[in-house]
């Protein structure tokens, strides 16, 4: 179950939403003598999450609280890759980015996407405290630093 | 220090502020940061890595930052460094090396790391040269040496700072470099200190490193280390340096505040467990070395004369003696209020000549006898002639030791005056006239070349204190002519 759930979480937003839902489920575990949990599971958990949780809870000896806490711990432990783009990506673009990152880095990473038009193009990536700038802004700045004198001369002329 | 983007590009690491707790920041990221390293925030603020855990970095802020959770920071791959050079003389700087007196720093030829390990034993040399403070009681009874670490301890408002300033003025006029570290003090006091240096004409030989009580805790913490680094620069130039750290109890309280905020386990009196190490690694950087010397005078405040306080005893353990300023003596009107019985100098006597040592011994012995006589008098008993003489001489010695905070008296004339007291030159003089006459002698020594030569020659020729006393007894006109003339 855990792997299936984790594979559905692609971004930091997804992670935050799932964690909220898990917190709501945890707080409803003992409401109405345990009956409140069932109705909360139906109304609060998202469509793809509900059947997975349902199946797990119906197994013999399943401890709902421990399962939810373990799930919460695993979701909180997901590594994050922060990417900053010069445009707001579509759903399709997001899926492709996620796929590439999971293939190149790790399976259990999620991405946080930020938008900064000053980058012009390209991407800035932050992962585990490492920062890499592959944006056009950096390339242009470096180029301008090298050829500043020439450019200023040609402008004056 | 370059800008944020430079370090981001060159080192390729970034961190994010996760939690803010007054002067401490908890951040994530920066995988290769090391303790003590400087970090730079996106806003331009500076911090120093205080400690590391697998998940978080604890950063001590060095500027008054207005940060938010999520703010970015980068490593600088450097430890705290300050510019050093002759351009620091006459200037007032903060612990980060920034000038506080307006103008930019010039003539700073080098940059030095602030927190370094103390020199090893191979580089050290025995303390041999005396350090003249110009304060009679200290120079005769509790003498200091160049390279000694002597704790100056006493209650608040007992004259400790006056003594330190007197010592600074004397040493600056003798050519030593004087560095005064004001740790977490009032801004007005910092200004007063700077003006004092200018008024006394010693500014060109002094550096004032100051942090005010309103500065960030990290800045106050760094103050004595910065002062020591500057002292080491001048020591390496072959000079003798006098370093005053005022005061280490404030520094300890500041470090306690930082440690408690960082949730370190509180030890005795809520001080952290490494408070001794924090001070010892600083004090041990002073001493007498092959190139030059750093004489450190750390200051500690006691409460109601209690020398057994935690920080006070720590500092006593790591210094070569202490000068105790007694509140009771201060209240009796004694200035300086140094208690000669509770003050100790472990390496000062080895710098003295045979005559000085003999005089010091004789004087200390007399003071003990005098003190016993005074206590005996409390019982209202009849006193014999010997006791009366001791009490009379003791009163005169008290007058001799009483000294204005602005006066700096050379050791040689002090020795002659004491010899004169022992020889009975002032046996019939009233106490009201005694001080005035002594001052006339000091003035004559400072202004008349012939008298100065006479005194210096006499000191050089006398092998013991009794020789000196006998000579003065036989030839007291060379003194009396100056007193009455």
From TrEMBL, chain A:
Keywords: ATP synthesis, Hydrogen ion transport, Ion transport, Membrane, Transport. Pfam families: OSCP (PF00213). It is found in: Membrane. This is Uncharacterized protein. InterPro entries: ATPase_OSCP/dsu. GO terms for molecular function: proton-transporting ATP synthase activity, rotational mechanism. Its main location: membrane. It comes from Candidatus Woesebacteria bacterium RIFCSPLOWO2_01_FULL_39_25. GO terms for cellular component: membrane. It comes from the Bacteria.
From TrEMBL, chain B:
Gene3D superfamilies: 3.40.50.12240. Residues 352-466 form the ATP synthase alpha subunit C-terminal domain. It comes from the Bacteria. Belongs to the ATPase alpha/beta chains family. One of its GO terms (molecular function) is proton-transporting ATP synthase activity, rotational mechanism. Residues 134-344 form the ATPase F1/V1/A1 complex alpha/beta subunit nucleotide-binding domain. One of its GO terms (cellular component) is proton-transporting ATP synthase complex. Keywords: ATP synthesis, ATP-binding, CF(1), Hydrogen ion transport, Ion transport, Membrane, Nucleotide-binding, Transport. This is ATPase F1/V1/A1 complex alpha/beta subunit nucleotide-binding domain-containing protein. It is found in: Membrane. It comes from Candidatus Woesebacteria bacterium RIFCSPLOWO2_01_FULL_39_25. F-type ATPases have 2 components, CF(1) - the catalytic core - and CF(0) - the membrane proton channel. CF(1) has five subunits: alpha(3), beta(3), gamma(1), delta(1), epsilon(1). CF(0) has four main subunits: a(1), b(1), b'(1) and c(9-12). InterPro entries: ATP_synth_asu_C (IPR000793), ATP_synth_F1_asu (IPR005294), ATPase_F1/V1/A1_a/bsu_N_sf (IPR036121), ATPase_F1/V1/A1_a/bsu_nucl-bd (IPR000194), P-loop_NTPase (IPR027417).
């Amino acid at each position: 179950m855990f792997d299936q759930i984790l594979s559905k979480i692609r971004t930091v937003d997804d992670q935050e939403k799932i964690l909220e839902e898990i917190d709501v489920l945890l707080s409803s575990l003992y409401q109405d003598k345990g009956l409140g949990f069932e109705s909360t599971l139906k109304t609060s958990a998202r469509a793809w999450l509900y059947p997975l949780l349902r199946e797990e809870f119906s197994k013999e000896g399943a401890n709902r609280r421990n399962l939810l806490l373990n799930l919460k711990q695993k979701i909180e432990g997901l590594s994050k890759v922060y990417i900053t783009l010069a445009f707001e990506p579509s759903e399709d673009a997001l899926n492709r980015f996620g796929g590439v990152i999971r293939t190149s880095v790790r399976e259990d990473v999620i991405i946080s996407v930020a938008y900064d038009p000053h980058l012009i193009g390209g991407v800035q990536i932050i992962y585990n405290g490492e920062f890499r700038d592959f944006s056009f802004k950096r390339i242009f700045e470096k180029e301008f630093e090298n050829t500043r004198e020439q450019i200023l001369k040609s402008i004056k002329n | 220090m370059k800008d944020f983007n430079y370090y981001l590009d060159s080192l390729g690491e970034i961190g994010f502020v996760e939690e803010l707790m007054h002067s401490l920041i908890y951040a994530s990221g920066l995988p290769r940061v090391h303790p003590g390293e400087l970090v730079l925030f996106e806003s331009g603020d500076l911090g120093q890595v205080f400690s590391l855990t697998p998940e978080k970095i604890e950063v001590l802020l060095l500027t008054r930052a207005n940060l938010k959770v999520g703010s970015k920071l980068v490593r600088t791959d450097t430890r705290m460094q300050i510019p050093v050079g002759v351009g620091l003389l006459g200037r007032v700087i903060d612990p980060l090396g920034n000038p506080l007196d307006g103008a930019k720093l010039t003539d700073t030829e080098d940059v030095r790391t602030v927190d370094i390990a103390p020199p090893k034993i191979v580089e050290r040399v025995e303390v041999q040269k005396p350090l003249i403070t110009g304060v009679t009681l200290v120079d005769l009874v509790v003498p200091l040496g160049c390279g000694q670490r002597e704790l100056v301890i006493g209650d608040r408002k007992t004259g400790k700072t006056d003594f330190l300033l007197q010592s600074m003025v004397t040493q600056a006029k003798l050519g030593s470099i004087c560095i005064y570290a004001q740790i977490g003090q009032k801004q007005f006091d910092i200004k007063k200190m700077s003006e004092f240096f200018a008024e006394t004409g010693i500014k060109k030989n002094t550096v004032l490193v100051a942090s005010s009580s309103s500065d960030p805790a990290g800045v106050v913490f760094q103050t004595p280390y910065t002062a020591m680094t500057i002292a080491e620069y001048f020591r390496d130039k072959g000079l003798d340096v006098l370093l005053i750290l005022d005061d280490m109890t404030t520094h300890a309280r500041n470090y306690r505040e930082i440690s408690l905020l960082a949730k370190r386990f509180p030890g005795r009196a809520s001080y952290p467990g490494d408070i001794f190490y924090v001070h010892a690694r600083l004090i041990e950087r002073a001493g007498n070395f092959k190139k030059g010397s750093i004489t450190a005078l750390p200051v500690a405040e006691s409460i109601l004369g209690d020398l057994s306080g935690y920080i006070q005893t720590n500092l006593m353990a790591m210094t070569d003696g202490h000068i105790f300023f007694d509140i009771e003596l201060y209240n009796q009107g004694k200035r300086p209020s140094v208690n000669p019985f509770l003050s100790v100098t472990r390496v000062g006597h080895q710098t003295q000549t045979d005559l000085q040592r003999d005089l010091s011994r004789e004087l200390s012995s007399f003071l003990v006898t005098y003190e016993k006589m005074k206590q005996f008098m409390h019982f209202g008993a009849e006193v014999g002639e010997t006791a009366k003489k001791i009490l009379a001489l003791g009163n005169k010695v008290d007058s001799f030791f009483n000294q204005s905070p602005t006066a700096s008296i050379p050791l040689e004339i002090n020795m002659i005056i004491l010899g004169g007291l022992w020889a009975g030159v002032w046996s019939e003089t009233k106490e009201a006239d005694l001080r005035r006459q002594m001052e006339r002698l000091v003035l004559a020594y400072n202004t008349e070349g012939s008298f100065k030569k006479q005194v210096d020659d006499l000191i050089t020729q006398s092998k013991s204190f009794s020789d000196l006393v006998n000579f003065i007894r036989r030839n007291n006109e060379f003194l009396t002519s100056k007193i009455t003339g």
